[in-house]
């Protein structure tokens, strides 16, 4: 296990911005994670992250403890004919490829999610019309006392890009997903088509956090942002992508405040010109500098 103090969160977020966390912990095993969580004070703030791909950490950093699961909890296995079990640190693209290789259909949308299974569970991430919790059978969660328990999908309230955790749960450890047999043999072709479309329409390889805003009912955030003439709009080192208007990209000069100001600018402009209030999909945490 690895515990760091005053760790810059820019090293652990896909926008590559963010101030220091008081403590940053990377477990090496489930046991080390459980032991560490158990050692924390009952009122210690905990931020549980994966790839940091749906997260904006402000420049003042994070008070408390950040637990990063990327690189840990990465076991992936087939449980039975139609069930795949993935730990929280497994990359969503890896889950998609594993499932397709198992001749199962319905996981291809995971290939378009730039994060881990734990992050996808936490926000009900989706792509290409599929959503994470549509295929969840049960999840394993960790409590504040470091113990884990498996809970059925029905134990959670979830919706579009939103999941409510029980009060004593600090994060997801693993999940079991149920898929259908790939009877038509098209799952691999579908996944490759989705990946090709993502590469053609999104700024893949650039520092982004995925979709910045949720799609409002009956519309698309990207269409609204582009309609308002905001493609290419820039504040400091943050810019609205010319390829996909719902993506904000950053350069090496960016700070979290640039991104947050650009998010506010987009919301204000879209509200003023269309009357629609966009809701951020990214989670904003920490203190301003």
From TrEMBL:
Coiled-coil blocks = none
Residues at the active site: 161, 211 (proton donor), 281
The record's subcellular locations are: Cytoplasm
Keywords, A to Z, come to: Cell cycle, Cell division, Cell shape, Cell wall biogenesis/degradation, Cytoplasm, FAD, Flavoprotein, NADP, Oxidoreductase, Peptidoglycan synthesis
Q: What does the record give as the function of this protein? A: Cell wall formation.
Q: Which family does it belong to?
A: Belongs to the MurB family.
Q: What is this protein called?
A: UDP-N-acetylenolpyruvoylglucosamine reductase
Per the UniProt record, the source organism is Solimonas terrae
**What high-level taxonomic lineage is stated for the organism?**
Bacteria, Pseudomonadati, Pseudomonadota, Gammaproteobacteria, Nevskiales
Gene name as annotated? murB
């Amino acid at each position: 296990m690895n515990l760091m103090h005053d760790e810059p969160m820019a090293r652990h977020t896909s926008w590559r911005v963010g101030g220091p966390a008081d403590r940053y912990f990377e477990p090496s095993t489930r046991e080390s994670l459980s032991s560490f969580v158990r050692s924390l004070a009952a009122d210690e703030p905990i931020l549980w992250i994966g790839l940091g791909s749906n997260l904006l950490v402000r420049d003042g950093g994070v008070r408390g403890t950040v637990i990063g699961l990327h690189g840990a909890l990465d076991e992936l296995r087939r449980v039975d004919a139609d069930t795949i079990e993935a730990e929280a640190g497994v990359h969503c693209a890896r889950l998609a490829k594993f499932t397709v290789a198992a001749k199962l259909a319905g996981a291809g949308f995971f290939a378009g999610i730039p994060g881990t299974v734990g992050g996808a569970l936490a926000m009900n991430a989706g792509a290409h019309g599929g959503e994470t919790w549509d295929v969840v059978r049960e999840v394993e969660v960790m409590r504040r006392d470091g113990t884990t328990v498996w809970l059925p999908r029905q134990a959670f309230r979830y919706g579009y890009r939103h999941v409510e955790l029980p009060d004593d749960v600090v994060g997801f450890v693993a999940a079991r997903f149920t898929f259908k047999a790939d009877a038509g043999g098209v799952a691999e072709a579908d996944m490759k088509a989705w990946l090709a479309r993502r590469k053609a329409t999104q700024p893949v390889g650039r520092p982004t956090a995925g979709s910045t805003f949720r799609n409002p009912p009956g519309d698309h955030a990207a269409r609204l942002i582009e309609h308002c003439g905001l493609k290419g709009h820039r504040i400091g080192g943050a810019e609205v992508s010319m390829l996909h208007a719902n993506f904000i990209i950053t350069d090496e000069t960016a700070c979290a405040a640039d991104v947050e100001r650009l998010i506010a600018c987009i919301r204000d402009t879209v509200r003023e010109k269309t009357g629609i209030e966009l809701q951020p999909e990214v989670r904003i945490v920490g203190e301003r500098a």
